[in-house]
Write a structure and sequence with these properties.
The protein has about 150 residues and is α/β, with parallel strands linked by helices. It has three helices and seven strands. The chain folds into two domains: about 100 residues, no CATH class; about 45 residues.
Length: about 150
């Protein structure tokens, strides 16, 4: 089986793309959907975690995929996601410009883009994930980050 297992505790490291992680974090912040990073069996020492919307559907297959909450990969230093009211307040209090809906839209889009760019810096090298066998610690690698 070349190192493959039904036991998720054999996983030593996961790799996830920056885009998948950013999308999962943003989806969970801006919608009622539950975005996770899914690791699909069979399991091995190094696995890929991919963006997945958890619909709460029971899996008939065994072993079941592992769903990782994207916040589990963040070390806590990620700034708050920009709120439209905050960017509106910043624009309205800026004495060098006049408020318009279009300026507000552009400023909010820029704030969101800046937040997205900060995500890779907030990712921890190690994370603890939940598995059916209990909590399991592993290393985290980002794909598509500036250091790749």
């Amino acid at each position: 089986m070349s190192g493959e297992s039904s036991d998720p505790t054999v996983i030593r490291s996961i790799a996830v793309t920056v885009d998948d992680l950013v999308s999962a974090l943003e989806t969970n912040r801006t919608s009622s959907k539950n975005a996770v990073l899914r690791v699909t069996p069979p399991f091995s020492g190094r696995m890929r975690a991919r963006l997945h919307i958890d619909l709460g559907t029971a899996y008939s297959q065994q072993p079941q995929p592992i769903h990782i909450q994207p916040r589990a990969l963040i070390d806590g230093a990620l700034p708050a996601y920009p709120e439209p009211a905050e960017t509106e307040d910043e624009l309205r209090t800026d004495p060098s410009t006049t408020y318009t809906v279009e300026r507000h839209r552009r400023r909010h889009e820029a704030a969101i883009e800046q937040w997205r760019e900060q995500v890779p810096d907030a990712v921890s090298d190690r994370a603890t994930i939940e598995t059916p066998a209990g909590d399991h610690e592993l290393s985290v690698s980002l794909l598509g980050a500036a250091s790749d």
